[in-house]
Write a structure and sequence with these properties.
The protein is of the alpha/beta class and 257 residues long. It has a single domain, classed as Rossmann fold. The chain has eight helices and seven strands. Strand 4, helix 4 and strand 5 form a beta-alpha-beta unit.
Length: 257
């Protein structure tokens, strides 16, 4: 039987690229998205064998919805070997604008609570089986806070520490937790950015490297590797130097801009 991967946010961008990469490697797919019709049309256009994929409609920011979807996957396809909590949103915010607080709430609900809720149905059965891999998608933007990225950067910083905590909890039971931190990937999400994006990578190339990192059981992997160097430099820069470097940097688009 082919191994099974469960991927949220699979209807576009890196989620879709990861789905295709896993399929090409011989895996079966459990694909989760809000836009089920769009995802189904994509799978059919790729001529994926019907016996090797299934689509589930769910909103990861709705705890009851996404946890029920995980349980349904186990019932219908079996316990996955890999679960990738990929669904996420990136919107700029300005703390001086009251309505942007709701944007922050929505980002945390999706990027953080949604990640934990995605993993929740699988943790106990993977521990009982003593195998499995949980994958959190972080971002280089989570290494330091960037102007206009207050919600997104902090949500991705939380992914690093949340996955580290979960790794310590699951490791004694044979369950691996992998954190993948993309740099700039050419997706509909990043094409709206109004600032320079060094080492921009195509989603297919990202998916191949992410697959390799997950298979290797990497603790944390920055992709592409150049952004890992950038992340290390950002991490050790003194605050005063970092602040000066950000002066005049374009801010991320806010909702509606």
């Amino acid at each position: 039987m082919p191994r099974l991967v469960y991927i949220t946010g699979a209807s576009s961008g890196i989620g879709q690229a990861l789905a295709l990469q896993y399929y090409q490697e011989g895996w079966s797919l459990a694909l989760v998205a809000r836009r089920v019709e769009e995802l189904t049309a994509w799978a059919e256009s790729q001529r994926l064998a019907p016996s090797r994929w299934r689509v589930y409609r769910a909103d990861v920011s709705d705890i009851a919805d996404i946890t029920a979807t995980g349980r349904r996957c186990i019932e219908e396809q079996g316990l996955p070997d890999v679960v990738i909590a990929n669904a996420g949103i990136s919107i700029g915010m300005d703390t001086a604008v009251e309505e942007d607080l709701a944007v922050m709430q929505r980002i945390y609900a999706t990027n953080n609570v949604g990640m934990a809720a995605t993993f929740q149905p699988f943790v106990t059965p993977m521990r009982e089986r003593r195998s499995g891999t949980l994958v959190g998608i972080a971002s280089v933007a989570g290494v330091r806070g960037l102007p206009g990225h207050g919600a997104y950067s902090s949500s991705k910083a939380a992914v690093f520490t949340y996955c580290e905590s979960l790794r310590g909890e699951c490791r004694p039971d044979g369950v691996r937790v992998v954190t993948i931190a993309p740099g700039y990937i050419d997706t509909p999400l990043t094409r709206q950015n109004r600032y320079r994006m060094p080492f921009l990578m195509q989603p297919e190339a990202f998916a191949k490297r992410a697959f390799e990192a997950i298979e290797a059981g990497a603790r944390v992997r920055f992709i592409p590797w150049q952004m890992g160097v950038v992340a290390r430099v950002m991490h050790v820069l003194p605050g005063a130097v970092f602040d000066r470097l950000l002066v005049g940097r374009p801010r991320k688009h806010r909702q509606g801009e």
